[in-house]
Amino acid sequence: MTGDVRWGILGTAHIAAGSFLPALREAGGGRPACVASRTAAAAETFAAAHGIERSVEGYDVLLADPEIDAVYVPLPNAVHRRWTEAALEAGKAVLCEKPLCGTVEDTEAVLATARRTGSLLWEAFVFPFHRQMARVRELLEGGAVGELREIQSSFHFLLTNPANIRMSRELEGGSLQDVGCYPIRLARLLFEDEAERGRASAVWADSGVDVEMTGELSFSGERRLLFSCGFRRSDDTFTRLMCTGGRIHLTNAFHPEAGDTIEVLTDGGRQVEPAAAESHSFTAAIRHIHAVLGGEEEPRHLAVDEALGNAQAIDALLRSARAA
Questions:
Q1: What are the tens digits of pLDDT across the range 71-100?
Q2: What class is the 127-278 domain?
Q3: Which of the residues are catalytic?
C-alpha cells in the first residue's frame, strides 16, 4: 500500500487514548481514521476529544469500511477472539491488546483464522520492538555478562476500583492475564524457548480473579523465570537478568520512559545507559507495522509465531495456582 496507514479503533478504552494514539502520531506514516463504539454518542465524544477523523456506531460497521487498513483492538479479553477474528476475516491488519485471548482454545482459534485468511496479526506486546531489547540481546550475545540463567521480573500496580474490568472473571481479567503475561513473554523472548512447566500461588479476589501472583516457569537447560505480578502495591516493573558472568538490571523492561535505565554489573565494574528511545512505548511497534504494510520491512513478532506459548504458560500457571 502507499500513503498513510488508516487505522480504525474498536472501542474507547483508556489505553487507546493514553498509549496507542500518542504513539501513532509519534511513529508517523499512519493516522487515526475512525473509532467505533457500541453507541454513536460514545464514539463521537471520543473522536472529538482525540482528533480522530470519523466515528461510527458498531464495531462491524468499522470493519466493513474499505477505507480502513489496520485495526487496533483494545477491548476486554473475553471479546478479543470475536472481534479479532472478524477483523482478520475483513482483511485488516490487526494489533490486538494482550493477552491475545484469555484461553488457549480461543488463542488457537484466532491463530488458525490468521493463517487461513493471511491477514497480519500482532499481539500488543510492544517491548520486543524497543531499542532496549535490542541492546539487551546484544549484551547477552556478545558475552559481556555470560550465559543467561535466571530472570527475576515483577510487574505490579495499585488497582483500587472493584468495578474495573480487570477484576471480572467473566471478562477474563486477573493480574496474570493483565501484567504477569509480560515477564512470561520476556522470558520466552530472551531464552528463545518455550516453558516446560510452571508453578504458582495466588491471592484471589471475591470475583474469582487473581489479584496477586508469584510463580516460576522452568525452561530447558535448568533455566528459569521467577516472577511476581499484582494489583495490590505501587508501580513496579523491575527486572534482573542473572547470568554466569554478571547481571543486567532493567528499571522497566516493558514500557521504558525517560529516566529508565539498563544497568550492567560485572567483575569489571558497573555500566549504566538510558533505556528509552521514543517518548511512547507503542511507537516502535506501530512504526514497524507501517513499514510492513508499506512493503519496506518483513513482519516480525507476528502472533502466529509467538502468541500460543504465552497462552499455554498462563494456563499452566493458573491451573497450578488454583490447585495450590
A1: 999 999 999 999 999 999 999 999 999 999
A2: alpha beta
A3: 98
